[in-house]
Amino acid sequence: YMNTSSDSAVQLSEWVEMRSKESAQFLYWYQAIVLQTLFLMLVHSVWEPNFDMYLDTLTQICPWVFALDHVHYARLLRVFVKTLRDLKIRLPKVHEEFMKGKFVIQKTGQPFSSLSDDHVHEQNNRNVKPDGGAVGLLGSLNALSKPEIARMVNEFVVHVTKPGISKNFGQCSQAVFQPIIVAQLWTASRVDVIFDKYVPDSLKAETREKHGTGNRVKVASATPIPKDWNAFLQVDENKEELFKILSEDLVNVQHQNKTVIS
Question: Any stretches that span the bilayer, and where are they (predicted)?
Fold first, then answer.
């Protein structure tokens, strides 16, 4: 920057500091540009991928989430950054792979096209929810046979599958849940059944609390199905015990030369 009144050169940082003190509007738009640049750098670090840039950008974003009063991010983002920084010491092999770009997912061979895992997860959700909806998908063997639906996400199945006429959880497991897994085995040699994990004091836990809670039920095979299924699913402990029953029952699922991992 050249000061036209004195023809003396001024460093950009000095000029920004001077203008920020003189004009609140300048300060506002300058901070907006800085924040926008950080977001672009974060996207760049994922697309490239560049783990050092990713970590450095997240570190710079940390003060902003405090300043902008994003309580959950302010509490958890710094923990996430600290965990990533400790990888080099605590898990050097993981850190080495991350430095090679394996902290993101590469779906194509094209450069600058990597995706974050949550982005890919959202794409997978879109794939398993066609125009007919997820419930229609689970009732169709042809739909379940699609290559992109090779892995069943158990909590998704539990939420969209109603217990029907089942009188207890044991019947629900055998008559409703297991047929969905068996249908997968017709077109796949292996099915991985993934159970969600409920971590206390996490962002998801706090979000679920805002949605309200249902009634706690001691879940066992002989336990009658509650009348309010949605209220039952609002309690994390209920689902954890239900997942245990479903997992144990899957051990009895047999199909020639096929494998079920639960």
Answer: 27-47
